[in-house]
Amino acid sequence: MEKALNTKKWGIGSLTVPFSLFAILFSFSSIGGKEIGRYFFEFIGIPFPHVIISTIFLIVAVILGFKHKDDYLAKGGSILALFMLVMESICIIGTSLANCGII
User: Which helix (H) or strand (E) holds 53?
Assistant: First the structure.
């Protein structure tokens, strides 16, 4: 009897990992005290919050991961995106509370 090594295929759900990594790079990685997303938007000349783009990519990654869970890397990418969404929410809430003087 032969054993199937890998039954998962590459598909749309496999894009969850690149979307998650791009969002992490865009919002959580910084050079010289500024996030890479800020550098990007300053370079193209658009005043737009980089956190919104990061959040959109993470939400898309979670949705793709759950819709196409049979694809290769879909589950891992959606878990990573969900974890980063929770971390981003904690950072936003913590910053808001600190700015209000509650913390």
Answer: helix 50-67
Distance of CA 10 to the CA centre of its chain: 20
Structure-token match 């819709």, residue found: 67
Distance of CA 73 to CAs 7, 10, 50, 59, 101, Å? 12, 8, 26, 16, 42
DSSP letter at 12 equals G
**Nearest alpha carbon to residue 28 among 93, 74, 85:** 85
Round to whole Å and give the CA distance between 23 and 58: 6
Question: Could you report the per-residue pLDDT of 39-67, keeping only the tens digit for each?
Answer: 888 899 888 888 888 899 999 999 999 99
C-alpha 98: how far from its chain's center?
Answer: 24
**Single pTM value for the model:** 0.80
